[in-house]
């Protein structure tokens, strides 16, 4: 795995009961070093955050195809899965931009894998039809 970006941010989760953003691990406030790692063998991506203070892992999240990433403010970005809404409160706009560029790159790669596969399938199906003497392809 190789890191495609690194930024400093506080990792938060949204607490539905209090309607507030809280630290991902209770009582653990402060900045973490957040990396997006790319596994080139499987072409997958992960967000991994380690507390600067004590090196505890506070987030280890697999980025999935179709994830909706929201840049709520220049320094606060968020996304959700079925269980949780995650937020990153960045140390600076520059670090937020660095992270969001890497996240959007990862999502683009993941989302285009499926599109690429569909295009490839269509190409071979279309080619197969043409090789049988058909002049058009209907889905």
TrEMBL record:
Location of the WH1 domain: 1-110
An example Gene Ontology biological process: positive regulation of actin filament polymerization
Record-linked InterPro entries: PH-like_dom_sf (IPR011993), WH1/EVH1_dom (IPR000697)
A GO cellular component annotation in the UniProt record: stress fiber
GO molecular function: profilin binding; SH3 domain binding
SMART domains, sorted: WH1
UniProt-listed Pfam families: WH1
Subcellular location: Cytoplasm, Cytoskeleton, Stress fiber
PROSITE patterns assigned to the protein according to its UniProt record, in alphabetical order: WH1
Taxonomic superkingdom: Eukaryota
Name of protein: Ena/VASP-like protein
Lineage, top ranks: Eukaryota, Metazoa, Chordata, Craniata, Vertebrata
GN (gene name): evla
